[in-house]
Sequence to fold (274 residues):
Amino acid sequence: MSHHEQRRAPLANGMPMLGLGTWQNDDPDACAETVATAIEAGYRHVDTAQAYGNEEHVGRGIAATDVDREDVFLATKVWIDNLAYDDVLATADRSLERLGVDSVDLLYVHWPSRSYDPEGTFRAFDELVDDGRIDRIGISNFLPEQVDEAIERADAPIFANQIEMNPLLQQAELREHCAARDVELVAYSPLARGKVFDVPELTEIAEKHDASEAQVSLAWLREKGVTAIPKASSEAHILDNWRSLDLDLDTEDVAAIDAIDRTDRQVDPSFAPW
Fold:
């Protein structure tokens, strides 16, 4: 496929609805190469975090492409030890330095845990918005009542809640709650860390469309209005995930996936709020 025909991910309020997740991609050169490969393939949304230890490599990967920085939607997250007012400001600056950028499109509170203090944390985030160092405020792993508290505390809008979501963890309540409050949802582990390949309902739909189970899961999330950030390190997976943009599920497919009644959480640290 030539660059002229390159696909574009649909946008959710300016955020490309398919991005590259970089969790556990901590080998410096491999990480930079993965990011560059994804951007060259058409991805325009890259997600990292202070806790991943790879912001510098992600930044290198973006810089290595001929795509302008302002054309890439870049997100990172403030770790749970850095959420006191002063620490947010200091560590956000360090994140920007490591990424080699003047600002990020989206900065998340990674978890509502440990040093998280709604008042102080969001006062700092608001300051970062006012200074132009971040464009939007995000939250991650927030439950409905915590979403409301964040909205109440922050002056700037809460743009997105990044949560684990996939056909095996459908998050109906949180989806409805965030939609009612105009908070975008971003799905991490959208392939349930590979478990979607072993779900008969997904395999059946994949075969029907000559697609992969990964593509079916990503297309389902898009149908739900949710942005997905699958982690991929091989070029084959990066491209396979990207081709999910060509897959349109029909009503029957969506209903079959909606009916998968499982709650398989892949990410469940001791400091989680649930």
Observations:
- The chain is about 40% helix and 15% strand.
